[in-house]
Amino acid sequence: MALLLLAAVKGLLWTVAIPPWRAPDEPQHFGYIQFLSREHSLPWIESTHMYQDVISSMADTKFGAIRGQETVQVLTTADINPAANHPPLYYLLMLPAYRLARSGSVETQVYAVRVWGTGIFLLLILASWQLARLSFPRSHYLQIAVPLMMIFHPQLGFICASINNDSLLILLFTVLLLELVRLAKSDFSRRRAVLMGAVIGLGMLTKSSFVVAYPLTLLVLAVLIIRRRSDRSRIIRVTAIALGISVLICGWYYLRGLLHTSPPITVEKVERYGQVGLPSLLFSSRFTADLIDSFIGNFSWLIIPLLDSVTAWFRHLVWLTGLGVAVSLGLDYFRSREHLIVPWLAGLYALVIMTYFLFSAIFEIKFGGAQGRYLFPAVFPFWALFIVGLVGWLPASWRPRSVAVVVTATAIFSTWALMDEFLPRVT
Amino acid sequence: MKLRLSRSGSAIAAVGMSLLALVWLSNASYQIIDFLRVDDTVHLPALEDGHQVVQSFIAPEDGLSRVDIMIVQGGSSGGQVKFELLSVSDLSLVPDDATTIREVHEDVSSLESTDPHRFEFEPVPDSAGRAYAVRLSGNGETRSGSDSLLGDLFLDGRPIAGDLRFAVFHTTGIGGLLARIAPFRPLWLGSSSFFIGLFTVGAACCGFLLWMIAFEKQFPNLRG
User: Fold this and answer.
1) CB distance A400–B115 less than 8 Å?
2) Which residues pair with B170 in a beta bridge?
3) What angle is formed at CA A100 by the lines to CA A95 and CA A105, rounded to 5 degrees?
4) What string of DSSP letters covers A278-342?
5) A-chain residues within 8 Å CB-CB of B199?
6) Is there a contact between A142 and A129 (Cβ–Cβ < 8 Å)?
7) What angle do CA B131, B137, B139 make, to 5 degrees?
8) What is the pLDDT of residue A32?
9) Is A271 within the bounds of a domain?
10) Cβ of A65 under 8 Å from any chain B Cβ?
11) Which positions 137-176 of B are in contact with A (Cβ < 8 Å)?
12) Residue A177 domain boundaries
């Protein structure tokens, strides 16, 4: 209960702190909701344009100030709304809040949608708490600490408080992880299979990047088939049901896209690291540093980065915790009664993080402009392994208070990011 | 006994944290951005020995206390950058003997990032509406990217087109900070008391949860 209350507080603080349109692509995402309400149909990208009231509001709220200009018209009604390329689930869920505030100003509608969207953040924290209970059944302090780290994660709070389909994507991927862990703990029931399929289907109706869930789920199921020979037929049944349900839920949307012939939309690539291949990019320290920096905090339209010395310190800590996880697992081999996390779960979480890191690198090569929020579906695995890496190698009796120190430091960091970095610097 | 300790302990932690939050909020000071110049800025040559760049501007608020300037390392990482805040009477004429009212020295090696460097100094009390200039000079190799806002840009005393890429900040208390979140928020969302109330409730929850983490053995329900 206290976790949910704190999550609500955090969500609302960010909601009111962010001026209208000062979150990535917020005018475009809001434009999608407007389209649903006004046209009563799903948008096609080539015929969906920005609405005049949003453009006027951007001028009224001095959007140009983010680039240091008094007046700047960033968008026109002739501009295509690129958000129209996204599946509709998130926007349909936000529609009631928009309609409720329809008689108010555009800014009132924006805040109504943001406040309504805070509910997604609450559900994310609830799902994370459930996942933490499964991940750390004997370490009760971690069941609170990992969701707390997510609450105090500055960029996660910023993105989840803004109008952006990433928040629902993160929630559904975390629920999928919850289902996968339940499955891996030998729950091969039909109910589990249906739930897993439903979550994947809904995820695909939220953002197409959820497609990462298919290979990941199939990999987990393949490992289970190899390791649990006696349950092979039940696992195959789970696989078939989950795939079938997911395709039933989202198939119509992608089929609709396949059957629709539209003129090609050219997207200008943002070239930041030169024309390099995937291996060079993966091992480029600048790409990794930029990704980690915008993962922890780079606000507004990526123009309010946290202090470089702080993010550099965080980057070092990330590598250190990676080493810490390895040391913890090694030590656990000799002191099995004290282990924090079982090796297969640590492996699964590391795999999820690496998968999204790879996905971000591929996105960077194809389109450019990859950001830390593209790693957010792996946000639970990240903070779970982060804490294990920091305290897992300590004697068991030292861990709870060490975790309390880590969480306190993160709370101070989070407050500093909001009160000293974002609010004073947002224009 | 344990249960009583857990209840009283977590209650004390919650109340203590919310009081701490209130005290901190009422005493903290914040450096708030006044204006930012990002677009249409110029790239200048390296600030080697003897060279200097001057950017003039008008401070919109009292308490001018920080200027962020896009300045990066050039060929070497040795030497120092001297930052001076000058009080001037004319934006377009910055004499060599203008009064230096604040001065900051930074090692060139500290200019590692691709983000603007923060030059922080003691707040200037009556700065609102007055003309100032920042003068950068160095004995190491540095380059300054881009253009300026309300004033002019001078390189070695000669006016040149464009501005530095820079931002100006002033220092204020919690009232000044929360005044920024008032516009455009409907109902009570823009009110200071709502923000402070939320912050205090959040601090209380945080104190309660931290106590639970640190003393988890006192919470039999949690363990069960």
Assistant:
1) no
2) B32, B64
3) 100
4) HHHHHT-HHHHHHHHHHHH-EETTTTEEPPHHHHHHHHHHHHHHHHHHHHHHHHHHH-GGG-SS-
5) 9, 13
6) no
7) 170
8) 96
9) no
10) yes
11) 149, 167, 169
12) 165-261
Whether B88 and B131 have beta carbons less than 8 Å apart is answered as yes
Which of A231, A261, A291 terminates a domain? The answer is A261
Local confidence band at A116 (pLDDT 50, 70, 90 cut-offs): very high
Q: Give CA–CA dist A39/A32, Å, rounded.
A: 10
**A286 contacts: CB under 8 Å, gap ≥ 6:** A273
ipTM of the complex: 0.86
Query: Is residue B5 scored above 70 in pLDDT?
Result: no
Identity (one letter) of the amino acid at A140?
Answer: H
- Domain architecture of chain B: domains with CATH: 2-28+177-217 (no CATH), 31-172 (2.60.120)
Say which of A16, A17, A404 has its CB closest to residue B210: A404
Provide, rounded to the nearest whole percent, the portion of chain A with pLDDT above 90: 62
User: Using the beta-carbon criterion (under 8 Å), do B180 and A145 form an inter-chain contact?
Assistant: no
Task: Report CB contact under 8 Å: A140, B216.
Answer: yes
Q: Which two tokens stand for residue A9?
A: 């507080």
- Angle (CA) A419 A299 B144, round 5°: 100
Q: What is the pLDDT of residues B167-189, one digit of tens each?
A: 888 998 888 888 888 788 888 88
Question: Which of B41, B42, B181, B205 is the mutation pick for testing A, counting most A CBs within 10 A?
Answer: B205
Is the Cβ of B213 closer than 8 Å to some Cβ of chain A? yes
**A31 touches A50 (CB < 8 A):** yes
Task: Among A302-311, A406-415, B47-56, name the most confident range.
Answer: A406-415
Contact B201 A9 (CB under 8 A): yes
Distance (Å) from the alpha carbon of B166 to chain A's nearest alpha carbon:
9
Q: Is residue A269 part of a domain?
A: no
Q: Does A105 touch chain B (CB under 8 A)?
A: yes
A215, A231, A261 — which closes off a domain?
Answer: A261
Q: Which chain B residues are closer than 8 Å to A426 by Cβ?
A: 33, 180
Give chain A positions within 8 Å (CB) of B32: 424
**C-alpha dist (Å) from residue A9 to A55, A111, A123, A154:** 30, 15, 14, 13
* Residue among A11, A175, A202 nearest A90 (CA): A202
CB contact burial A44-75 (16+ within 10 A = b; e otherwise):
ebeebbbbeebbebbeebbbbbbbbbeeeebb
Is residue A276 helix, strand or coil? coil
A130 and A208 belong to one structural domain: no
Same domain assignment for residues A44 and A154: yes
Both tokens assigned to A157: 């709070």
By residue count, chain A amounts to 427
Terminal CA-to-CA distance of chain A, rounded, Å? 35
A402 has a chain B CB within 8 A of its CB: no
How do residues B128-141 score in pLDDT, each as one tens digit? Answer: 988 898 888 766 54
